[in-house]
């Protein structure tokens, strides 16, 4: 029997007269990479902010790892967040901290960890993203792709069950984008993570997706594997794949 690790039910969110999410429903299975595609303004970024509890939906329910986040008190929500990784578009590193200090930051609240255990976790996380040599560098010394890798390493340090990727390849050249996409795949296999990947990069979607949904006007209008959606009879769905096929 398949285990559902993340479920969004009839999610609605509006800002004044602008209704962004209009009853979005999605499910993510254990160990699955789900890619969410949509044009700008279709509700992708609002969805991800609702998932991590940064904004509250107007209606609907979000269940992560068996817990309804809309019902949780702040302490319980923070506890749940430790099982969830989130890679921001910008990698969101602290510029005044070294790479080592950035990775240690999520571990600060854990009084049980000894110094050598922290060092080991930091080294393991950096090794997993191929950046062991950057441990004492400052973020300003890193390329965009390296910053994304460090952001991912910081996410991995808490061994999350679910990872949310918000446009993981934005601003990167095609070669680095492919490297990040393959890294997402490696992480999935190594840690058996489940992921929701918000992207408009079709090559990232092709590499990483076990399943995809396409959202339009705040609801899911198509779902399936990359190859299935690429051959869709719906012209609007096929339009996502046109630029890729023309390259």
Account of the 3D structure:
This protein has two domains: 4-83 and 160-246, 3-Layer(aba) Sandwich (Rossmann fold); 94-154, no CATH class. It contains nine helices and ten strands. The chain has helices at residues 44-51, 74-81, 99-104, 115-128, 144-156, 174-191, 202-208, 226-230, 235-246; strands spanning 4-15, 18-29, 33-37, 59-64, 67-68, 84-87, 162-166, 194-198, 211-216, 219-224. A six-stranded mixed β-sheet has the order 6-7-8-3-9-10, sandwiched between helices. Strand 7 (162-166), helix 6 (174-191) and strand 8 form a beta-alpha-beta unit. Helix 4 (115-128) packs across helix 5 (144-156) and helix 6 (174-191) runs parallel beside helix 7 (202-208). The longest helix has 18 residues, at 174-191. The protein starts with a strand and ends with a helix. 36% of the residues are buried. The mean pLDDT is 89.
- CATH fold category name of the largest domain: Rossmann fold
> What's the order of the H and E elements?
EEEHEEHEHHHEHEHEEHH
β-strand number:
10
- Structural class designation: alpha/beta
- Provide the number of structural domains: 2
